[in-house]
Amino acid sequence: MPQKNLIKHSDFDRVLITETLPYETPIIFSNDGLYNRVKNIENSSDFERKLIKSIVFGDNDQLKYKSTKPYLYKIRKNALEYRRLALLHPLSQWKIRDFYKDYSKLILYFCNNSPASIRTPKSIASSFFSKSSWENIYKYKTSSFTSETVDGYAKHTPSFFSYKGYDRLYKFFNSTDYFSLEKKYQVQMTLDVSKCFDSIYTHSMAWATKEKEFIKKNLKSSSFGNDFDIVIRHGNDNETNGIPIGPEVSRIFSEIIFQKIDNIVINNLSQNSILFDNHYVFRRYVDDVYIFATNEELAKKVYSTYSDILMKFNLHTNSSKSTITFRPFSSKKSQLIYGANDLIDSFFEKFLKKDENNRLKPKVIYSSWRLNRSFIDSVRSLCGINQVTYNEISSFFISSINERIKRLIDVDGEIELIEIQNYAKALKTILDVLFFLYSVAPSVSSSYKLSTSIILIIRFVRLKLVDYEEEICHKIYDLTIKLIQDESQGHHVTPASGFIHLENLNILLSVRELGESYLIPESVINDICSNEESYSYFTVISYLFYIKDASCYSNIRDKLIKYLRSQFSDLSDITTNSEKAHLLLDVLSCPYIPSKFRKQWIKAISKKIHISPSLNDTDVNNITTQMIGSTWQINWAEIDLLNSLEKKELKRAY
Q1: What Cα–Cα distance (Å) separates residue 270 from each residue in 12, 110, 278, 395?
Q2: CA distance 483 to 647
Q3: HSE (CB half, 13 Å, CA atoms) of 430?
Q4: Which of 158, 438, 453, 510 would suit a FRET pair with 201, their CA atoms being 20 to 30 Å apart?
Q5: What count of other Cβ atoms lies within 10 Å of the Cβ of residue 332?
Q6: Residue 550 parent element (H or E)
Q7: How far is 462 from 466, CA to CA, in rounded Å?
Q8: Reverse transcriptase domain: from which residue to which, for each copy (predicted)?
Q9: Residues of 1-21 as b/e, b for ≥16 C-beta within 10 angstroms?
Q10: Bridge partners of residue 69, in order along the sequence
């Protein structure tokens, strides 16, 4: 059963953990260190305390109100398109934290006005549930995810608010609500908002939160919309057109606006005697709208009304993505998932069996190649029948396989000698399938699943299949090299400005688990980011974490230091440039950068933000040593990537 974990209602610092970061980041990245620094600021050194007050709190009024520039990066959306995400400056993240502290009740009020929303905050979270499948593999963790204290759990909570509705859209389509709607209405029509977050006009927050009787009774609410507008713009270079993509706070910002739109649509239609929950209904999941109506004409009327109101908020529909379905409401996606479920079950039944405790145990495998070829042929056939690409289904398979691995390695005690070979063959079979599915349709979300599988398998074989450790570890090593080479060559042909090959970086980070005997060749790592011009924060920290102080990576290390020296040659924008601020904080605590450079940067930052303009050599040496023990976003010393991946799963994007 999932485990319930308690957290403090009043801990607004956890906003830094749950609301301000994109989901799609390197697996080593989090705000856990920043959270701890803020919580324990009084126990910090004088240098760190002043650093936090300048870069995070913005104690200088001039800094506090000057907008910041987010770190913008692109990840793969599909085979042809990219998504551009934003990592906000720590100072802007802190302003969001303060906004939540002042306005959390009003956020909840304005997020609970529409009957159409199927994912919206309902209360401040006081607990969260950890997934039972992770509890089953605790023996493979090097440090504990759980904590005996409520404060300890705060860093693992998936969101600041508790939500009502559905955390994933597919759950709506499997719900009793959806079945009831199909029983009541003959037609389903979809409405897609084009480039929603890129198009939102921030001043529309004021329009969405005015003309409320509630405002008259709450003095603070009169400035709520304006303050939310200011906070969002502060972290986005003061842009009024578009909001940062990635952070949960942006989804809440858009939710309030869409709730206003929902209600205007419902009211406008009611004036023409077209009644919500009678003649029609619609359900909205973030910016995806599903209209249900008694006939096609009425569904189109609702669509056109919604589209018209969207335009008044500077938003537009993408008519090319709109679909109309008549009962039965069976979408291509649902048919695909049903088929995929049957396929994956059939595949595993051929070489895995359940024991009395519902754990999986391997059967004898006579030919891994035939087993894999048969499965992959079936996947191809499924895609062909449904006229979709691997991108539509690969992540589902990878996630399903990852869950099977957790059950397969849930072994207590020694494995019987007669079964050891079966386990080894089963794992090698699974690895081949996993890497194939990932290579044909890589995605950031799938990289977290594959990384989890890789680390679990490595730890399992080292603990339970010692005789096969070298063989299986070498297989992972070879598969990873081939994956990186194939993927990187594809992006040399069509590079995209600002693109971060996060899919490959995450796999690279996970195979660091293999240890010093299986270090990926320097030439292969260079393939991920082939030139210094395309270096950026996430690339640099991922490379540094992987290469550590290994002598075989001297060329990469030299390139990284050259890049860092260039970046830090001018620190005048350290309090406004998100990428530079994050990079500096993590590099100052990185033990793999020669101390002479870190000392130079400590002196430079001290002067730029007036921490101490006249540090002597002893002061600098002491600060350099102290900073090595600090964690900001990257924990260079003690991190269990399984814990990081578990938190990723709890906080997965939607």
Answers
A1: 41, 22, 11, 42
A2: 25
A3: 31
A4: 158
A5: 12
A6: none
A7: 5
A8: 54-343
A9: eeeebebbeebbbbbbbbbbb
A10: 577
Rounded-to-integer distance, Cα 147 and Cα 152, Å: 5
| Amino acid letter, 97 | R
**Each residue of 379-434: pLDDT tens digit?**
999 999 999 999 999 999 999 999 999 999 999 899 999 999 999 999 999 999 99
Strand (E) or helix (H) holding 120: strand 119-124
- Say how many Å lie between the first and final Cα of the chain, rounded: 24
577-610 residues labelled b (16+ CB within 10 A) or e (exposed): bbbbbbbbbbbbbbebbeeeebbebbbbbbebbe
281 DSSP β-pair partners: 292
With H, G, I as helix, E, B as strand and everything else as coil, classify residue 282: strand
Q: How many CA atoms lie within 13 A of 103 on its CB side?
A: 27
Please report which helix (H) or strand (E) contains residue 86, including its range: strand 82-87
Predicted confidence at residue 147, as pLDDT, reads 42
Residues 228 and 253: beta-carbon distance below 8 Å: yes
Strand segments, DSSP code E, in 142-259 are: 161-165, 187-192
Query: Number of helices and strands (H, E) in the chain?
Result: 29, 12
d(CA 337, CA 393): 8
Which amino acid makes up residue 239? E
Task: For the beta carbon of residue 467, count every other beta carbon within 10 angstroms.
Answer: 11
Q: Tokens 């814990």: give the residue.
A: 643
CB 574 within 8 A of CB 605: yes
- Measured between alpha carbons, how far is 107 from 85 in angstroms, rounded to an integer? 23
Report the pLDDT value the prediction gives residue 97, as an integer from 0 to 100: 98
* Residue pointed to by tokens 């042909």: 493
Q: Which of 617, 589, 586 is nearest to 603 (CA)?
A: 617
Residue type present at position 650: L
The stretches in the chain having pLDDT less than 50 are 1, 144-154, 215-216, 219, 653-654
476-494 as b/e, with b when 16 or more CB fall inside 10 Å?
bbebbbebbbebbeebeee
Please say whether the beta carbons of 443 and 487 come within 8 A: no
Residue 358's H or E segment, with its range, is none
**Amino acid in the structure at residue 278:** N
Tell me the three state secondary structure of residue 654: coil
> Could you tell me if residue 286 is left (phi over 0), alpha (psi between -120 and 50 degrees) or otherwise beta?
left
Computed on alpha carbons and rounded to an integer, the radius of gyration of the chain in Å comes to: 26
How far apart are the C-alpha atoms of 441 and 394, rounded to whole Å? 6
| Contact yes or no for 584/601 (Cβ under 8 A) | yes
In 380-534, where do the E strands start and end? Answer: none
Q: Rounded to the nearest 10 degrees, how much is the dihedral formed by the CA atoms of 390, 394, 395, 399?
A: 170
pTM score over 0.90: yes
Closest CA to 40 of 58, 13, 21, 6: 13
